Amino acid sequence: MKKKESLSGAFDYVLDTVETVITSVLLVLCVFTFLFRMVTVSGESMEDTLYDGDRLLMWNFFYTPKNGDVVVVRSKVLDKLIVKRVIAVSGQKVVIDYESDKVYVCGKDSDPVQSDLLAEGYLKQTDIKDPETFFSEEHFDKENNRYVYTVPVGYIFVMGDNRNDSTDSRALGLIDLNDVDGKVIFRYSSPKGKQKIGFIE
Length: 201
Known about the structure:
By secondary structure, the protein is an alpha+beta fold.
């Protein structure tokens, strides 16, 4: 009788363990499917904020892009995921001034003023590449030597922090909100050792 009770107890223990393991696996799968995703940086377009090979956690649950966020988006032109910084959101206007190497973000019906100048301490370099060799002429204001982009509802404008080595909205166009996978929040590995583990700003 004791042997049967012992076997029954062992069987119950195994069932409890299997149930716990399955529940834990399902919970982890749900968290990394609906809340977080792991992504790896490919390329140099976000230096010195992110480096090639950096491994990141991305938040994608009910996320709405905001100015300054580092995001993962799917580029239909490149047919791949890319990591960029949100420069402007729906209803804003981006003005890239090549005389002063400055970027302004203002209301779509406004002209940029000094207070609209972006404070971009994250940039790898402060100069902006010659538009004649890099940009489409569609948005170029030749009279003022600047590019002007108005962001309609449902889109965002993104650029890389390594501004002169980044294929972004200046060349790819605006990003549909439906193509935004999520916000980069944490770096958990940096193979080159150039950046510390921690939260991304």
